[in-house]
Design brief:
Oligomer: single chain
Order of helices and strands: HHHHHHH
Largest sheet: none
Mean pLDDT: 82
Shape: elongated
Structural class: mainly alpha
Radius of gyration: 20 Å
Number of domains: 1
Helix content: over 70%
Length: 139
Amino acid sequence: MPLQKRWMGLAFSTMLSLAGMLWSALRYGPEVLTQEIVLVAGLVIATGVALVALGRRSQSRWPAAVVLICAAPIAQPMLRVGTLLSLAWVDARELAIGIVLAVGSIATVVTAFTILFAKRPSQAPDPVARAVAQGRSSE
């Protein structure tokens, strides 16, 4: 079950990045989405892959790699210190959009790397399965 929490975190972080992109489209017009079509398409694919992995209760790590690759175009500028420092010079609405994009992007990268490289969470042993595997003592 702890792996499912990681998949849920990954799905929500990609959705947060996508929400930031849609919010910027509402603020600046739909031209933002057409100009940044690669970013939007990557976030849509990343969100879809994360949701499918969550829904299927995936034990594989490869969907996290796909999400990381798809979300990389939006995450890469957000991980630069200069981009984050430039957020301080914008008005409050732009700052809020930037914060949503930055938090979603950074959370996506961190969660994807956690799924890819962290030790798998241990699951509690099933007492019934252990008893069946041991067999009966009277046999």
